[in-house]
Amino acid sequence: MGIALALVALITGCERRPRIEPPGPGTAIREVAAVPMKTARQIAFLGTIAFVAQNLEGMTALDVSQPRNPRMVRHFGPSEIQPLHICPLTPDTLLIADRFRGLVVWRVKGADDITSVASLRLPGMLCHLETFTTGGRTFAAVASGGEGLSIVEITDLTAPSLTARFLHNADFTRQVAVRGRHAIVADNKDGGMKIVDVADPAAPVLLFRVLLPGFCDALALQNDLLFAAYRNYGTRIFRILTPANAADEILTSQSVELLSQVVRSTDRVRNVLPLGRLLVLANDSAGVEWYDCSNPSLPVLIAEWRAPDDVMSVAERDGLLYVAAWNAGVRVIEPARPGMSRELLRH
Q: Which residue, 108, 181, 200, 204, has fewest beta-carbon neighbours within 10 Å?
């Protein structure tokens, strides 16, 4: 009954719309650097190296020790790697969701000292991954495109092994976020979001689905808030409700509450990045948008920036935003609004 009531509340809450105010004075955004490259899709940092996933074009390593003068130090061609998502695991290890090769493990001692440790072919087109630990063992939850969710044990990085698969009428699984014993899955099917119990990685169990219009493309968690991009339906902000007697178990009650929905344009929200009270959205041809989510029930637009091409994702490092802007390459931008850079550093 609790689950049903939670879902009814979600569906009825869909009618609520936050009031979006125009940016105030002084909300300029400065572009401080640009690195040309094709099909920049996602950026991940390992120390002072930024790795840029470029899909069929391979991957590029940038030296960002001087962020206003990033330097391209190495390009990995598609014959070596074709990443859709890069996930730093340790200070010298990358996990890579390769479009065709599956899950790939690289050891990185420097841009010129990279070793392929292992790879594991998995079903589907690998789009995204996130790691978690349970029972002293480490796993990767992998969004496997048209083949649902794959759970891979990576306790021994030299020998990753498929532990389980979760399908449950999956259409195209794009992203996954893990907190505690639960994986939150972004999928095109059935309103786009599934909550899966992975306490036993060998037997993932569907807990419930969130039935709202739109295809869920991206997810991010921050404290008790869940941010989900629903393509042309904008971004929805949920609160995860946890009972008082289960402080260590997020989502134990299997309920979430829809707080607000941000729909500013018909462009496709591809990536969500919460930074403290701020929410940064990668909104395709609409560019990058900043929202003040001090009150998550009423997000307020405070700044925006248009890229020369479609914005695929954003990443933050030392108060600067690194924008993967498809064929416009990587753009480094800095909020010029008083106090905004400090807020990024404070998150």
A: 200
Rounded CA gap, 238 and 226, in Å? Answer: 5
- The answer to whether the CB of 73 falls within 8 A of the CB of 64 is no
Q: How is residue 203 written in tokens?
A: 């037997």
Neighbours of 7 (CB within 10 A): 19
**Which domains does the chain show, CATH number per domain?**
2-19+41-268 (2.130.10.10)
The identity of residue 197, as a single letter, is D
**Token pair of 224 as six digits:** 């008790």
Do the Cβ atoms of 228 and 234 come closer than 8 Å? Answer: no
Q: List pLDDT tens digits, range 165-186.
A: 998 887 889 999 998 889 999 9
- Compute the residue count for the chain: 347
| pTM of this structure | 0.87
pLDDT at 168: 83
Mean pLDDT of 96-114: 91
Q: Which two tokens stand for residue 185?
A: 């899955």
Q: Residue 299 carries which side chain, given as an amino acid letter?
A: P
Place of tokens 């730093």: 88
Q: How far apart are CA 207 and CA 186, in angstroms?
A: 14
